[in-house]
């Protein structure tokens, strides 16, 4: 029996979970930034992840087909290594809505992985993203009425200061469920699929 058959629809996305060590460093960074930016809404450390593909609300019956569709990726995708560094905002400093830390390193391989996921999801009815993929970890969200945040970031030089949280190994994909409430989004890992391509940390 499908474990999701008793639910009508789920809000889901594919992402990479952070290691415990990287999550600890993210917490330290948030604490440092909080002194200058007490007015923003900080993302709970356990909720921070690297999004690969947001699927949105889907019928629960599609969860297993989604997992089946990424099976060829799981068995042929080599692990890749990223470096987490560099602060920035979306969409711009005049009216920032998201504060993030970026990813560098094996970005071409990451783009290829995301492209493979897009290709696997399209036959299931999930269209490709209309915006270029930009790898990042969301640290905080900024409300419309917090217009002073852009000025604080500009004059404090926080975005120019070097920030490097170290290495981030991508060797598995997790399907997350997102439940939205007044207190924010809560993410639950539904299934994690480790890469088993020869040379992967998870290969036998």
TrEMBL record:
Q: Which domain of life is it from?
A: Bacteria
The record places the active site at 49, 136
Q: Sorted alphabetically, which keywords does the UniProt record give?
A: Hydrolase
Cross-referenced Pfam families, in alphabetical order?
A: LigT_PEase
Q: Catalyzes what?
A: a 3'-end 2',3'-cyclophospho-ribonucleotide-RNA + H2O = a 3'-end 2'-phospho-ribonucleotide-RNA + H(+)
Please report the stretch or stretches of sequence annotated as the Phosphoesterase HXTX domain.
Answer: 21-100, 109-180
Give EC number(s), comma-separated.
Answer: 3.1.4.58
Q: What molecular functions are annotated in GO for this chain? A: 2',3'-cyclic-nucleotide 3'-phosphodiesterase activity; RNA 2',3'-cyclic 3'-phosphodiesterase activity
* Biological function: Hydrolyzes RNA 2',3'-cyclic phosphodiester to an RNA 2'-phosphomonoester.
Q: Which PANTHER family match?
A: RNA 2',3'-CYCLIC PHOSPHODIESTERASE (PTHR35561:SF1)
Q: What is this protein called?
A: RNA 2',3'-cyclic phosphodiesterase
Source organism of the structure: Candidatus Nitrospira neomarina
